[in-house]
Design a protein that fits this description.
The structure is a single chain. The chain is of the alpha+beta class. It has 2 domains: 38 residues; 50 residues, IHF-like DNA-binding proteins (HU Protein, Chain A), CATH 4.10.520. It is built from 3 helices and 5 strands, in the order H-H-E-E-E-E-E-H.
Length: 90
């Protein structure tokens, strides 16, 4: 499912226009992004949690030349699925 298909599904289930569904989806994604940028955890009960993980600096290899390179430490967004979501998939 891509973004436009998700907007169509939201519009159908919520009985709103596609434009309003698109704005709602964009607002949701932007809110999650803003919270993660501040380092907060976003928990949607029954769905899962979005949080920021830390990746340590490490040594890597350039696949083309084989030369060693340094990869900087980074903060990365992560998602942990909730029990209800896991149960609905199985």
């Amino acid at each position: 499912m891509n973004k436009s298909e998700l907007i169509d599904a939201i519009a159908k289930h919520a009985d709103i226009s596609k434009a309003a569904a698109g704005r709602a989806l964009d607002a949701t994604v932007n809110s999650i992004r803003g919270s993660l940028k501040k380092g907060d955890i976003v928990t949607l009960v029954g769905f899962g949690s979005f949080y920021v993980g830390k990746r340590t600096a490490r040594q890597g290899r350039n696949p083309r030349t084989g030369a060693a390179i340094k990869i900087k430490a980074a903060r990365v967004p992560k998602f942990r699925a909730g029990k209800a979501l896991k149960d609905s998939v199985n």
